[in-house]
Amino acid sequence: MVVAMTTRRLNDHGGTAAVEVRGLVKHYGETKALDGVDLQVRQGTVLGVLGPNGAGKTTLVRVLSTLIKPDAGSARVAGYDVLTQPRQLRRVIGLTGQYASVDEKLSGRENLYMIGRLLDLSRTDARARADELLERFSLTEAAKRPAMQYSGGMRRRLDLAASMIGRPSVLYLDEPTTGLDPRTRNEVWDEVQGMVADGATVLLTTQYMEEAEQLANELTVIDRGRVIAEGRVAELKAKVGGRTLQIRPTDPAQAAAMAALIGGAGLDGVAGANADPAEGMVSVPILSDEQLTAVVALVSARGFGIAHIDTHLPSLDEVFLAITGRPAESAETGDATGTETGDGTGEAEAAGTARDGGARTAKNDLTHDDENVEVTV
Ligand SMILES: Nc1ncnc2c1ncn2[C@@H]1O[C@H](COP(=O)(O)OP(=O)(O)OP(=O)(O)O)[C@@H](O)[C@H]1O
Ligand SMILES: [Mg+2]
């Protein structure tokens, strides 16, 4: 089921598509990692690609990075086709993979310098760019320490810095904050917001609803290789789950009586109300502004004092549940590592390098300059 939020075309926004994906298919044996995905990322915006484990997020990023080839469909990034113009395409993208791609033994500065050199910067330029990015990502003090001594957040910031060396116009961030504590996650969010403010177009994959809400302009929800919903974050939430109206009576002890009144009033489309006596709060699921007004009018007409009114959109976890009928966490039943099959074209190997150590493999692969190279730009 696709929840068609809006079927607007890009032109309706007056924007051009920095990333344009049509009918993308990628199978691994029986596994349909991508099963006909369509999406667009407008220039200068952030698209959140939201999906549980095994949804196909990393596969999508790998196709869009030219690390693997799709079985069918097409994809263009900054106007370049993934199949016919992979080299041009690689020059305009930055990739922060799901797994850290820095060389542990090298210092932060050496990592960035090396990547700059791989991208053909002169020694002077590579040094200058490394220092600039270390400063930008608050890593100047740690610049000379080996990356293995970095905290999770510092490593992630180094990953982001590494992806920025080539001044990419389109950035892929594959689950940039998975495994980070909340404070560190906030730091990474700040950095991403800074990149967007500087004009980058971002395709961000995430399993965190909150992350999508914080960073993304629009969302594409994927599940088992298929797009199951798309739209703006607020639209998606409102469409799927309605809203919850919360009313706090002036006298908290009256919460139960207020809930009983609302539940028994037979207001059109208002199914009922829940009282939370401990909080002195009443919650009412509503679908429209008219219902909100009717509920508030009813309780005030009956003499209840109102201390506070609020409405909440449902969380994206609830949205996912509403769309798929199951919680976001439990989509993948198989064991991803156990089903690695490859397909005889060296793609499994290329995909493996994306997981394990981009910077190091970048050195080897870039010198080969073949089709499926790992590029840490
Ligand atoms: N090289 C491969 N060989 C075989 N199967 C693969 C390979 N890469 C991915 N898959 C399978 O394709 C599906 C999609 O995987 P993918 O890594 O794209 O998911 P994901 O959305 O990134 O998940 P996660 O959130 O866990 O990173 C999964 O079922 C996975 O097991
Ligand atoms: Mg992944």
From TrEMBL:
SUPFAM superfamilies: P-loop containing nucleoside triphosphate hydrolases. It is found in: Cell membrane. It comes from the Bacteria. The keyword Cytoplasm does not apply. It is an enzyme of class 7 (translocase). Residues 327-377 are annotated as: Disordered. The keyword Protein transport does not apply. This is ABC-type xenobiotic transporter. InterPro entries: AAA+_ATPase (IPR003593), ABC_transporter-like_ATP-bd (IPR003439), ABC_transporter-like_CS (IPR017871), ABC_transporter_ATP-binding (IPR050763), DrrA (IPR005894), P-loop_NTPase (IPR027417). Residues 19-249 form the ABC transporter domain. Coiled coil: none annotated. Residues 331-361 have a biased composition (Low complexity). Belongs to the ABC transporter superfamily. Drug exporter-1 (DrugE1) (TC 3.A.1.105) family.
